[in-house]
Sequence to fold (357 residues):
Amino acid sequence: MEKSILDYETLALDEGERALVIIDQTRLPGRTELLHLKTQEEIWEAIRKLKVRGAPAIGDAAAIGMYLAALEAEGAEEADFFQHLREARAYLDSSRPTAVNLMWATERMERAAEGAKGQGVAAILEVLRREALRIKQEDMDICEKIGEYGLSLVKKGDGLLTHCNAGQLATAKYGTATAPMYLGQKKGYGFKVFCDETRPLLQGARLTAYELQSAGLDVTLICDNMASTVMKNGWVQAIFVGCDRVAANGDAANKIGTSGVAILAKHYGIPFYVCAPSSTIDFSAQTGADIPIEGRPGEEVTELWYRERMAPKDVKVFNPAFDVTEASHITAIITEWGILRAPYEESLATLRKKCGR
Ligand code: MRU
Fold:
């Protein structure tokens, strides 16, 4: 039987080859090409160019990136080793600014190494290897939990809508926004899923529609500007999206266009759920205004997916990769610790205590 995209690991550590193995997501759905990345520079470039993408997967990749970077200083004295690790962290952190899972993972790796200070470089490397694999395993477990909580919010036969790709390809497994869909499919819920294509990089069309269809779900692809129509028609009972960073007041940054979907959902009285592993919460950001929003090249809008350029030469382009959905438009935030409701300052503060951050 032919291998499905879901049979591939989104990312893995090849210990023998000392490489991060990823599916090059810029080639999907046309080609499934695995890349073996050995250096910090290759991993930085893969994150920047969205070959590996989605907040949790970026964190997992950066954690493995930190381990591989540490291996580069295998023969060094401890002091030089730590200097090398600090530099690798700053470098990897600079690959993309919005998904806080990136900085969360590299910080956690450096902290793990600090905890083994004085034990010698070989022992610290082993700590780093285990921590990187733990981060990836936790990502899978968290997605499963989000799937269970998410499924408790919907009914058999519901129409669901999602934006961008918060799927298996954005995590180590299951996805966040897609986890309730996959779990529901296993349990015979018979969901009908609408995927926004997600201009300009088409993560919804190229990745979400592809992985859900490969899994055998009933999936319908729509252009972003058709979301209002499917909601008005009564075809959508709940919306699940992922996120890249949640502020302490519940404002949540996700792929550009998400805030518009939330506003539409409120207009039509449809619940709008943000699926957020706790690693996506940035307690140091008071509100969405504190979240850095990545700007990307104009060519992604004017020509990237077209056979020929589709906009006048030299036209000004505004291409923010993310927007912030105000907390007041979010029905609930689904985490591995449970379902959070407004007021989010309080529910997030309680979660912070529980997870000890
Ligand atoms: O630019 P991308 O493709 O990395 O953006 C991805 C998203 O916006 C996802 O919705 C988000 O990272 C959550 S992934 C579980």
User: Anything to note?
Assistant: The chain has eleven helices and 13 strands. The two ends are 45 Å apart (CA to CA).
